[in-house]
């Protein structure tokens, strides 16, 4: 397996504000991404890349869930204008093209079909076209284009192609070699959950238990919404009086994971514990920080 390589991205905030328009490019990649909130759409459509041949995304919320529309066109701006009038649920537009406007119709149709296959939220598209119409060499080029695009989009605030589910390790030994495990037990509700800190992600493992419903009436609506989304998507499935995780799922923090498991706001740094010693996540983390000596500290010793 080839070693992972670092890559350089250029993010340019067009109007100097993080919530405004931005462009994203990667060194040694021909692609170009423009992200614009709907409130800045007139400005975005006046930019030269808006008239390029490419793919576009309309992102927002529909019927209480994240939603995405994917389209393509010889002139992105003309297609966006038609959908601006026809669809009222989206809040962000993403223009995907190349810096020199080198994509052709067959290529953007292929990209549209592949992006529909890779979407991790519900789509508003009526059809799901099959990727076709390209030579073997051109398909390879477009797959390479997509590989870079999936690195650039999350950096540009677009996460609709990111999956939080993770495959299970093929063997227990494989999991132990690259991860640190934690357990959370809530006897009052009969809950036991296991998690791994693997490659910087806090992953709750398949088979872990969680509350069936969100029990708190105050604050932390983000975690409550996440609990509901996991139920709706099938990552959490009812099993008697509790839920079980049907897949491994990566959370942004131990507290987010503990909140979903317990069905209420929780301090995951204290709730998650090492199964062998009972040490809390906070205690384990403090040990790791103490053991991590920087270059200056090593030089002074």
What can you see in these coordinates?
- The protein is 33% helix and 28% strand.
- The chain contains ten helices and 15 strands.
- It has helices spanning 41-45, 76-86, 105-118, 136-155, 172-178, 221-233, 254-262, 268-271, 281-291, 295-300; strands at 9-13, 22-26, 31-37, 54-62, 65-73, 90-98, 122-123, 165-166, 179-186, 191-198, 201-204, 209-211, 236-239, 242-245, 248-251.
- The strands form three sheets. A seven-stranded mixed sheet has the order 1-2-3-6-4-5-7. The chain has a five-stranded antiparallel sheet with strand order 8-15-11-10-9. Strands 12-14-13 form a three-stranded antiparallel sheet.
- Strand 4 (54-62) and strand 5 form a beta hairpin.
- Helix 6 (221-233) crosses helix 7 (254-262).
- The radius of gyration is 22 Å and the shape is elongated.
């Amino acid at each position: 397996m080839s070693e992972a390589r670092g890559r350089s991205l250029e993010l340019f905030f067009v109007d100097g504000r993080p919530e405004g328009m931005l462009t994203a490019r990667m060194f040694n990649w021909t692609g170009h991404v423009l992200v614009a909130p709907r409130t800045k759409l007139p400005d975005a459509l006046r930019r030269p890349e808006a008239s390029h041949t490419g793919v576009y995304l309309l992102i927002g919320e529909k019927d209480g869930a994240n939603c995405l529309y994917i389209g393509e066109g010889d002139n992105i701006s003309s297609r966006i204008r038609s959908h601006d009038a026809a669809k009222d649920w989206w809040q962000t537009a993403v223009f995907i093209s190349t810096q020199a406007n080198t994509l052709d119709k067959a290529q953007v149709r292929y990209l549209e079909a592949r992006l529909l296959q890779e979407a991790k939220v519900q789509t508003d598209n009526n059809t799901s076209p099959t990727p076709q119409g390209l030579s073997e060499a051109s398909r390879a080029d477009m797959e390479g284009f997509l590989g870079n695009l999936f690195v650039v989009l999350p950096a540009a605030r677009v996460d609709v192609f990111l999956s939080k589910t993770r495959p299970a390790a093929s063997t227990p030994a494989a999991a132990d070699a690259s991860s640190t495990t934690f357990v959370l037990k809530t006897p009052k509700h009969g809950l036991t959950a296991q998690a791994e800190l693997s490659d910087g992600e806090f992953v709750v493992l398949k088979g872990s238990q969680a509350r069936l419903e969100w029990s708190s009436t105050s604050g932390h609506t983000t975690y409550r919404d996440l609990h509901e989304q996991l139920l709706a998507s099938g990552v959490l499935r009812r099993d008697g009086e509790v839920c079980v995780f049907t897949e491994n799922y990566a959370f942004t923090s131990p507290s987010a994971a503990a909140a979903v498991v317990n069905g209420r706001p929780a301090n995951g740094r204290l709730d998650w514990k090492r199964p062998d010693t009972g040490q809390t996540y906070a205690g384990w983390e403090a040990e790791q920080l103490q053991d991590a000596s920087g270059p200056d500290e090593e030089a002074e010793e």
